[in-house]
Each structure stands twice: as C-alpha cells, then as structure tokens.
Amino acid sequence: MRFFIHVKPKSSTARVEQKNEKELTVWVREVPEDGKANDAVVRAVAEHFDVAPSRVKILRGASGRKKVVEIL
Predict the structure, then answer these.
(1) CATH architecture, range 2-71
(2) CB of 72 closer than 8 Å to CB of 6
(3) Domain boundaries, the chain
C-alpha cells in the first residue's frame, strides 16, 4: 500500500490525519535534521496503521516535506 504524506516537523503535537484513501498529513515534534523527522514519521505511520515500523519504508521525498511511503 502506498501513501502520499505531507509532513509538518517541529509541531507542538504528534499526530496523523488521513485525508483520503491515499493521503496523510503527519505532524511530528522532531526537527528535520539527521533523519530524526523521517524516523518519527515512520513510527507515527506504523502506529496509525498498527504495523511494525520495519514494514514502513520511505520511497521518495526523504529530504522534503512531501513523501511517498509504502507499507509492506
């Protein structure tokens, strides 16, 4: 399953909002440095879909706010 994600780093809250079947907005508290925000996004998406974080992979957009992730 693939999803288009818009990430909002350095947020005061951490949450996931599903816009439709293929789009998510993910707020994370971590800063976008050294992959910290990406790790937080993976954990948040995994928790949202109740899967292990190892099953969530960022396919595109690792250095930007718009990402494509796949859940295996």
Answers:
(1) 2-Layer Sandwich (3.30)
(2) no
(3) 2-71
Give the model's pLDDT for residue 53: 95
Q: b/e map of 8-35 (b: 16 or more CB within 10 Å)? A: ebeeeebebeeeeeeebebbbebebeee
Tell me the pLDDT tens digit for each residue of 39-59.
Answer: 999 999 999 999 999 999 999
pLDDT (tens digit per residue) in 23-36: 999 999 999 988 89
Report which secondary-structure segment, H or E, holds 41.
helix 36-49
| Rg of the chain over all Cα atoms, to the nearest angstrom | 11
